[in-house]
Amino acid sequence: MEPICKKYLELRYRLMPYLYTAVRETHDMGLPIMRALWLHYQDDPRAAQRGDEYLWGRDILVAPVVEPGTRERRLYLPEGWWYDFWTEERVHGGREVTRQVDLETLPLYVRAGAILPLGPVKQYTAETVDAPLMLVVYPGADGESSVYEDDGHSLGYRRGEWMRLRLTWHDASRRLTLRLAEESRMLAPMPRRLAVRVAPAATSREIVFDGNPIEIEL
Question: Are residues 63 and 135 in the same domain?
């Protein structure tokens, strides 16, 4: 059990930039972090009927396994392309799929067009780790996303001490654009080292962001 617990604790820290951005969205718009599928797929009656899976933020679909000894999980993917988070296999949605599972495999799927920010593994939230933020692009659709940061412990964000990095993916040209959101400012460290990877490629490309808009072809 310990290696499995370690795996998901580390995943939690890697997904902290995504989670923190979702928390700010909750603060600004009232959207919950855990979302019923119908919230983003209101015209899909099958999505509205599913009560055994949910969206975690906008981009990640979670299909919990709750029965002991389960070897496969049948789940519904809304219309569009989806990626198995663990294998990065691309799967067409608008239908039910069957995912093989075991004790350590929670089915997670990322929608095409998502730009997932992944941080380094940490031992605690405020630990300083000298590693770039990884942006994983899931191609197959155009997409927009953001990464939100503040100091994590004070009310400085109320005084404008926050940063939001706007990310736009144009699928046909395979171009990723990065820019600061309006009223946002660069936070230390400046400039920023970022790594960008397009799933399912294993290699990444490192870039530097200094606060000025940048467009890269991937």
Answer: no
Q: β-strand 192-198 against 133-137: which pairing, if any?
A: parallel
Burial of 168 (0-12, 13-18, 19+ CB in 10 A): middle
Closest to 79 (Cα-Cα) out of 16, 4, 140: 140
Q: What is the pLDDT of residues 62-112, one digit of tens each?
A: 999 999 899 999 999 999 999 999 999 999 999 999 999 999 999 999 999
Choose one of 90, 111, 132: the last residue of a domain: 111
Structure tokens at 114: 């998502």
Q: Which residues pair with 91 in a beta bridge?
A: 82
Nearest to 200 by CA among 118, 96, 82: 82
Q: Residue 190 CB: number of other CB atoms within 10 A?
A: 10
**Whether 95 and 175 share a structural domain:** no
- Domain ranges, residue 105: 32-111
